[in-house]
Design brief:
The chain has 17 helices and twelve strands. By secondary structure, the protein is an alpha+beta fold. The strands form two sheets. The protein has an eight-stranded mixed sheet with strand order 1-2-5-4-3-6-7-8, sandwiched between helices. A four-stranded antiparallel sheet has the order 9-10-11-12.
């Protein structure tokens, strides 16, 4: 930890020792994680389900979601027991590292020790149970795959309250579970469930094996975090430079959303624009303070949603609560926007954490933000360089070309920083750092432009034949182990509310 702090002065770590001087608990959070918490610490997950290290000590990870809907790590800890006192110690360390900023919501598993600790340290914070754990518990408690599938659908479905209650009763009667304690308890706690399915632990399990001692374990975990940041670096570039093709008939609104949200969030929101076309307004009620829109899907007037529109404040509220849950407007609200010929998303419906400009809002006179961003970029470039070196070193021509490109860029940037004339390196500069310049530095004639690979952005390859694909599969963490889906914070909304298909 002291060695890491030499490179990252903002690193915070704290060790707790027993009477013999042995480490019992170790908590740490680096500078980039603290910066991420300032931006995206409104909702955090807190869990301790991974015990695969050499000492079988639980690994606790405090994580969240960035503006690209990717998992990010705020802090981590290794502990020797799972008691309420230990978890209280961890939560207090988190608050100290994050300068006292408390989250809006915290997501945990159902362990009573964690619940008690959250209640003690965060009495005012919304506490939710992770759906991923609940689905796993449904499998172990009922042991019927058909029940688990239907339980998951009802739990994550986009249902009005009366519809949910009816479907729950039907499910319990179908499987004869009226008297099963676990099922009864789940219904009592239905208000505490969230749809965020956390797959980070299975990712760590794949990357950080059980053979490592404490020091190596921490080092490998930090490399895992660096890979996650590398993915964010690429997503930042794609959102900044990529322009999606408009696909819906609501082009003005779609174009506004494409410029507002990051690329990944835009792709999550665009289906709502398409679904709004199949919605229709059944009735409009004008009251003194708001206008009520009764919206249903075309041909399904028996399932309705109410959208309240406060015209003076430009506030929209829908009974589906999608905006309150996910932070993006539902197709029912979009229908009202279209009905009123509104071509921009009102400010009340924009959650800054999903926008492209969220990072630009930071302005820290202490320099902490600037230093953390530089460290983040440096870490991402180092990860990219490792993968580039692994491929380029295999072929002499690739090595020479890569060497010339890197040294040419280095000389150019160094000269610019020192205020001297740029050296004539003979290396052509590309506006896109991911695009390979054919024939540069090798004396080859330029060739006819070919399509670029979707993986490496190099001409002449496609995804199935890309030489990078194997290295990326082996080196970049993919969040797909054990059936966990960490790539999508949103469950697929259930539009056909009464159709199990």
């Amino acid at each position: 930890m002291e060695d890491i702090r030499l490179k990252d002065p903002q690193l915070y770590f704290k060790a707790c020792h027993d009477s013999r001087g042995l480490v019992r608990n170790l908590f740490w959070s680096d500078g980039i994680s603290q910066l991420d918490y300032r931006l995206f610490g409104d909702v955090i997950t807190f869990d301790a389900t991974y015990k695969k290290n050499k000492y079988s000590c639980p690994l606790v990870i405090f994580s969240g979601v960035n503006h690209h809907n990717q998992t990010i790590v705020f802090a981590a800890a290794l502990i020797v027991d799972e008691t309420t006192d230990t978890y209280i110690w961890l939560l207090r360390q988190l608050m100290f590292a994050m300068k006292g900023k408390t989250p809006t919501s915290i997501i945990t598993d159902g362990a009573m020790a964690i619940r008690n600790a959250v209640r003690d340290v965060f009495p005012e914070v919304r506490h939710r149970l992770c759906a991923w754990h609940l689905i796993r518990n449904a499998t172990s408690n009922v042991e019927n795959p058909s029940f688990t599938s239907k339980f998951k659908k009802i739990m994550l479905g986009d249902y009005e309250i009366p519809v949910f209650k009816r479907k729950w009763v039907q499910l319990i009667e179908e499987f004869g579970l009226e008297d099963k304690p676990w099922v009864i308890n789940m219904y009592e706690e239905k208000h505490t469930t969230t749809s965020r399915c956390e797959g980070l632990y299975s990712v760590v399990a794949r990357y950080v094996g059980s053979r490592y001692d404490l020091t190596s374990f921490v080092e490998h975990f930090q490399r895992c975090v660096a890979h996650l940041r590398f993915k964010e670096f690429n997503a930042d570039y794609e959102s900044t430079h990529g322009v999606p093709v408009m696909q819906t008939c609501i082009e003005l609104l779609e174009r506004y959303v494409a410029e507002l949200y990051t690329h990944e969030i835009f792709l999550l929101f665009r289906p709502f624009l398409s679904k709004a076309r199949s919605m229709r307004v059944l009735n409009i009620e004008n009251n003194d303070d708001c206008i009520k829109y009764i919206v249903c899907k075309h041909g399904r007037p028996d399932f309705m949603w109410t959208v309240d529109f406060h015209q003076e404040e430009m506030i929209f509220m829908c009974t589906c609560l999608r905006m309150e849950s996910f932070g993006i407007p539902s197709e029912y609200i979009v229908k009202v926007l279209v009905d009123r010929d509104i071509c921009e998303i009102p400010r009340s419906l924009v959650l800054d954490r999903w926008t492209k400009k969220v990072k630009s809002a930071l302005n820290d006179p202490s320099g902490f933000t600037r230093d953390a961003v530089v460290i983040s970029r440096q870490s991402a470039l180092m990860e990219f360089s490792k993968q580039l070196a692994a491929v380029a070193a295999k072929v002499p021509e690739r090595y020479e070309e890569t060497h010339d490109l890197i040294m040419g860029l280095y000389s150019s940037y160094k000269a610019a920083d020192e205020g001297t004339n740029q050296p004539q390196s003979g290396v052509a500069k590309s506006s896109n750092p991911y695009v390979h310049q054919s024939g540069v530095g090798s004396g080859q004639a330029s060739r006819k432009k070919r399509k670029c690979c979707s993986v490496c952005q190099i001409e002449g390859y496609k995804k199935t034949t890309c030489p990078w694909q194997k290295d990326i599969d082996n080196n970049v963490i993919e969040d797909e182990a054990n059936g966990s889906d960490d790539s999508n914070v949103y469950p697929e909304p259930t539009a056909e509310l009464d159709n199990d298909n």
